[in-house]
Amino acid sequence: MRKSLTILLLLTACGASDGQWPAHDGRDQDQADNRILVEVATVSTSSVAQHLQTTGTLDSDIQADIFPQANGTVTQILVEEGDLVMEGDVLAIIANPNLDGGADRAQIELERAQREMTKAEQLHSDGAISDQELQQARTALQTATATAQEAIRAQGFTRLTTPITGTIAVRDIRVGDLAGAARAFQVVDLNRLRVIIQLPERDLPQIAVGQPAQLHSAYDEAVSVDGSIARISPVVDPNTGTIRVTISISEGQTALRPGQFVKVDLEVDRHNDVIAIPQRALVWEDGEAIAWVVTDAPSEDEDNEDTNDQDGDDDAQNDDSPSLWDRMFNSDEDSDEADDASNEVVIPQRIAQRRTLEIGFSDFESVEVHSGVTPGEQVIVVGNNNLRADARVRLPEDPAPQIDTPDDEQDDENEDASIDEDAE
User: Fold this and answer.
1) Who has the most CB within 10 Å: 152, 175, 300, 356?
2) Which CATH number fits domain 97-155: 1.10.3720.10, 3.40.50.300, 1.10.287.470, 3.40.50.2300?
3) pTM
């Protein structure tokens, strides 16, 4: 025991003589991993497009709002919302006794006029009536015919029909309602959807009929359909300075519906084989476009190179000469250190570097970069907010530092106890 205390006192005196303590084994530092977890993407060459972006409301190029043309009570509804109807189909029936009675009276008058005309022709052939009386009978028949036709058409207003083929989008009446000036049905052709947008006059040289477009749901970017410019107004609205542009949508799509608010993207130009980074890698700081690039951290030798160059010969000699601790215990620990080195997991040391970018075209996925990064570099796409220069980062596949388990600590205590017993 005295021998052990003597060694400890000697070590303490030697360490304190030059103002330094024995170096820490670094175990606690290894256990504290303060690196920032990030995800990266590789800078590459790609094709990037330029877009004009605006918004609009979807509707159908062919749709009809059906209003009752006669007053009356709704007695029957033959269709419901979502039903497919053909041109001329009856949608609902309205009861109007006055129109029915008028049609009956007109039909009776027509039949009477036809009998009078037949009788007048017979009398005229026998010479019993003059030409003028025959002409009066013909005029009476023509008048009765016109009146009957008008009454029949008016009676037909009690049967609501559709003028187009499409889908019932809205039913605004119920059985028992009094039909009037309010809309009864809306029929929409879902295969002829469109969106009308207003573009500034300055964008006119960049658009043309047939140019492709892409429409996205305003509340779900993943929902999108293809379209194209169908019509461009030949005049500019003097009040707003905009141009009316009609975009038709591909037939057969069911993702978007009439009345839906959509975002419209028009591709007006494209650059091929340019350096590009993902949109997620682009960060704006004070109006400046930047990206964070992951690189290897400089080694400790590089960090201390200047300091080592300024050290004198005495310091170099002290660094090269073994310490008292090494002389006393080096022979017993060389083999253990060699075993630990062979089993040690190499932990990559990485840092984040801030790069200022000069960018060009930008589309939904990529950003064209004129300067700031080069192909093959890795840019951060997740975890790139609120970073600082030279911050230490790690990738998901990087190994974590080894953490001593309670069993390892118990082994260390047992080794210390055995050393003390041997010293006694």
Assistant:
1) 152
2) 1.10.287.470
3) 0.55
